[in-house]
Each structure stands twice: as C-alpha cells, then as structure tokens.
Amino acid sequence: MDSPSSVRVDAWIWAVRLTKTRSAGATACRAGHVRVNGDRAKPAQAVRIGDEVRLRVAGFDRVVEVRRLIAKRVGADVAAECLIDRSPPLPTPAERQVVAVRDRGAGRPTKRERRDIERLRGR
Predict the structure, then answer these.
(1) Which residues are in coiled coils (predicted)?
(2) Whole-angstrom Cα distance, residue 82 to residue 14?
(3) Cα separation values, 28 from 14, 47, 92, 94, Å
(4) Burial of residue 17, with CB atoms counted within 10 A of its CB: 0-12 exposed, 13-18 middle, 19 or more buried
(5) Cα dihedral sign, 20-25-31-35
(6) If you write DSSP's letter for every residue of the chain in order, what string do you get?
(7) Which of 16, 53, 58, 66 minimizes the number of CB atoms within 10 Å of its CB?
C-alpha cells in the first residue's frame, strides 16, 4: 500500500486519535490550538514525516512527532505506531491546586489580596 507524501493536519490528528472527529481537528486548527513545527496550522496544512505537531488539549500541550502518514482512522495499536509522543508529563493534582480560590460573594479583591494572588501565581 502506497503511503502519501503528505496528509492534511486535521485528517492526521483525527486518524491517530488525538481528536475524536475530523471536524474537531479542523476546529482546533482554526482556533490556533494546533502548531506544526512551531507555526500555527490551518486545517488543510500538509504534514510530512518528521514534523512536530503540538495540540492543545484541556489546557495542556500534546507534542507528537509524525512517524508515519495515514489519512483514514485505524485501530489504536496501528495509530500508536504512526507517532512518537514527546509530551511533557501532566502536572500532579497537587501542582494544579496552586490557583488562588476566593469565597463566593467575597467581592473584588483588595490591592493587598491582589498582590498576594500575583505573588502566588509567580508574577
């Protein structure tokens, strides 16, 4: 079976199961959540073997390298062979809880509280 020399990025991320539907992949591209080799990707942008694809999912980046090109959705074991996952590890639940939480109805933060929140966030 001949493999194509390039595939649309929205079709490829759907085929390797990074998005549930091809239209969700196209929507992610239009929203700027997909980057190919560091540049924002349009849905019809061509992907080639060796390209790095970054997909923003649920606030975290999925970084994969294209190992094989496929245009149609295949089984999970075959899809796993088409990419090399270089994603950084997800933060632990304890690391995610660094966000300052204010009581409901507490109103607008005072200047002192705002500075404490910014210090907590590392700004």
Answers:
(1) none
(2) 12
(3) 11, 16, 25, 28
(4) middle
(5) positive
(6) -PPPS-EEHHHHHHHTTSSSSHHHHHHHHHTT-EEETTEE--TT-EE-TT-EEEEEETTEEEEEEE-S--SS---HHHHHTTEEE-PPPPPPHHHHTTS----TT--SPPHHHHHHHHHHHT-
(7) 58
pLDDT tens per residue across span 10-52 = 999 999 999 999 999 999 999 999 999 989 989 999 999 999 9
pTM: 0.72
> Any idea which residue has 């849905």 for tokens?
43
Structure tokens at 38: 């560091």
Is residue 65 within 8 Å of 51, Cβ to Cβ? yes
The Cα-based distances of 86 to 19, 34, 76, 100 in angstroms read 17, 15, 18, 30
What whole-number distance in Å separates Cα of residue 119 and Cα of residue 123?
A: 6
Q: How far apart are CA 6 and CA 23, in angstroms?
A: 19
Closest CA to 72 of 1, 12, 3: 12
